[in-house]
Design goal:
Order of helices and strands: EEEEEEEEE
Strand content: over 45%
Distance between the termini: 29 Å
Shape: elongated
Structural class: mainly beta
Number of strands: 9
């Protein structure tokens, strides 16, 4: 058997910070990414006497690209309190073509496992960041996230949509006299969608 593969990836990101009156601040992040991967596998088979039998060929081509942006707005709203609100948006696309040949002929319908898939993810949150004392702080908030995935294989679309509300309660205690030592505790409901 012989196989070869080649992959190329490109990623970029940036961020901007805008400070406003009253101690308010807006942070925005953005990024993009893309990649391609191609592989070929050639497999030859022989009988017990060493005579050639069948030759199998597998070729796979995958293309990925995506965009994302996120941001956070913060504003002091009272002694020790900071209002924070933000968003996270992401879009991804994948196209994959897999061709399998048996002695030059396609082994199965549609010339392999050809598919495309897209995901759209939108999240938003709001929370109160409270400095109770110089050593002790807490966050209390709520996050909403919605994800829509659409995949196409053999001409059939398969859409999936999920939505989740996630309460957030997080507290940090910084041990006096030990700048890098702290105790953390959190109570939340989290959700992680499977990768494409």
């Amino acid at each position: 058997g012989d196989s070869s593969s080649e992959s190329t990836f490109l990623r970029g990101f940036g961020n901007a910070v805008h400070r406003m009156e009253g101690g308010a601040k807006l942070e925005v992040e953005f990024g993009f990414g893309g990649g391609k991967s191609d592989s070929d596998t050639l497999r030859r088979t022989f009988d017990a006497a060493g005579a050639p039998k069948k030759t199998y060929t597998d070729s796979d081509s995958t293309r990925d690209h995506g965009l994302n942006t996120g941001g956070k707005y913060t504003k002091p709203i009272g002694k020790g309190h900071l209002l924070a609100a933000g968003w996270d948006i992401e879009a991804q696309h994948r196209g994959q073509t897999h061709v399998a040949l048996d002695t030059g002929d396609v082994q199965f319908d549609d010339s392999g496992a050809n598919l495309t898939a897209e995901t759209r993810r939108v999240a938003a949150f709001v929370q109160d960041e409270w400095d109770i004392t110089p050593q002790w702080s807490a966050y209390l908030g709520l996050r909403w996230e919605g994800i829509r995935t659409t995949s196409t294989s053999s001409g059939a679309d398969v859409p999936t949509t999920s939505r989740v509300w996630s309460p957030v309660l997080h507290t940090v205690y910084r041990i006096p006299g030990h700048d890098k030592d702290q105790l953390r505790a959190a109570l939340t409901h989290s959700y992680r969608a499977p990768a494409m």
